[in-house]
Amino acid sequence: MRRAEGWRDFGVIDASGGEKLERWGDVTLIRPDPQVIWNTPRGEGWRDADARYHRSEKGGGSWEIRRRLREFWTIGYGEVLRFKISPTGFKHTGLFPEQAVNWELFGALIRGAGRPVRVLNLFAYTGGATLACAAAGASVCHVDASKGMVAWARENQALSGLSDKPVRWIVDDCRKFVERELRRGSRYDAVIMDPPSYGRGPGGEVWKLEESVYSLVELCAGVLGEDPLFFAVNSYTTGLSPSVMEYILGVTVGRRYPGGRLAADEIGLPVEASGLTLPCGATALWSRPGTEGITK
C-alpha cells in the first residue's frame, strides 16, 4: 500500500467505530468511513472535534456543528498546491487527501518525460490531479459534470498561483466528452480517471462503476496518442480490487501499446493514533516503457 505521508496541514488523528477523526488545518472533523469496522478506544480528541457528520437513514446526512465553523478555509500540500476546504452536505470537504500519492507520481512521470505532455483528467472534481500535473509542466484538460466542482477547481488554481498554466476547463459528461474528442481526432499523452462508485446520469440512468468501468477505459484508451506516457484509474469500490483494475488496463491500454508497465496498489493515509494505515481506495497505472510507476 502506498501512503500519503507528505501532508503538513492534514492528518487522520484516529479511526474507530465507522468514523475517522481528521485534522484539516486548524479544524478537526469527524466523518463516517465504511472501512473502519474496528472499535478501538477513543481519546479526548473525539469529544473536542469542531464538527461531526451524521448520516441519515433516508440518504445523505447533515453536520453537527459543535463550535463556530468557517464556511471555508485553505490548506496546502507541498510548496505550491493550495486547496479550499468546505464541508458539504454529502460529508465531503472538497478534497481527497490520499490522492497526494498519485499527484506525486503523475508529477514525476511528467517531469521525466522530456517533452510537452497533454493530460486529460476525467471526473476531475476540485482539481488536485489537474493542478499537480500543471505544476509539473503539463497542459491539462479538466472535465467534470458538475459546474460547481469545476468552479471550485478554478479557485484552487488561483490559490495555488497557477492561473497562468494551460488548463482547459470543461463542464460535461465525461463519456460524451471523450466520444466527441475521438470524433475530432484529439489525442492526449496521459489520461487520469477518477470515476465515482455510484451515481445517476443526466437522464436519470444509474451508474455503477463495476458495471461500466471496462467499457469506459476501453473508450478512453482511444484518445491516447502514438507515444502515450501513462493511463491511471482510481477506484473507491470495494468490489474492484487493484488486480481487477490492473487486468482491465492490461486488456485495453496494454494491448494497444505493448511493452508498457502495468501496476496497481491500494492507497491510504497514516493514522496518527495507531501508526497503521487507513485504506482509501486503489489506483491502477499503465505507463510507457522506461518510466517508474507504482512500487508495490
Characterization of this structure:
The model has no long low-confidence stretch (mean pLDDT 93). 40% of the residues are buried. The protein contains 8 helices and 17 strands. An 8-stranded mixed β-sheet has the order 1-16-17-15-12-9-10-11, with helices on both faces. The chain is α/β, with parallel strands linked by helices and 296 residues long. The protein is globular and about 55 Å long. A hairpin with a 5-residue loop joins strand 13 and strand 14.
Largest sheet: 8 strands, mixed
Identify the overall geometry: globular
User: Helicity range of the residues?
Assistant: 25-40%
Mean pLDDT: 93
Q: Flag low-confidence runs.
A: none
Listing every helix as H and every strand as E from the N terminus to the C terminus, the arrangement reads EEEEHEEEEHEHEHEHEEEHEHHEE
Strand order within the widest sheet? 1-16-17-15-12-9-10-11
Strand content: 25-35%
The oligomeric state is: single chain
Structural class based on helices, strands and sheet pairing: alpha/beta
Rg over C-alpha atoms, rounded to the nearest angstrom: 19 Å
**Tally of extended strands?**
17
| Number of helical regions | 8
Kindly, what is the distance between the CA atoms of the first and last residues, rounded to a whole number of angstroms? 7 Å
Write a brief structural summary.
The protein is of the alpha/beta class. It has 8 helices and 17 strands.
Describe how the helices and strands are arranged.
Layout: E1 2-3, E2 10-16, E3 19-24, E4 27-32, H1 44-47, E5 51-55, E6 61-65, E7 73-77, E8 81-85, H2 100-111, E9 118-122, H3 128-135, E10 139-144, H4 147-159, E11 167-171, H5 174-184, E12 190-193, E13 198-200, E14 206-208, H6 209-220, E15 230-235, H7 242-251, H8 253-256, E16 261-270, E17 277-287
Helix pairs in contact: 2-3
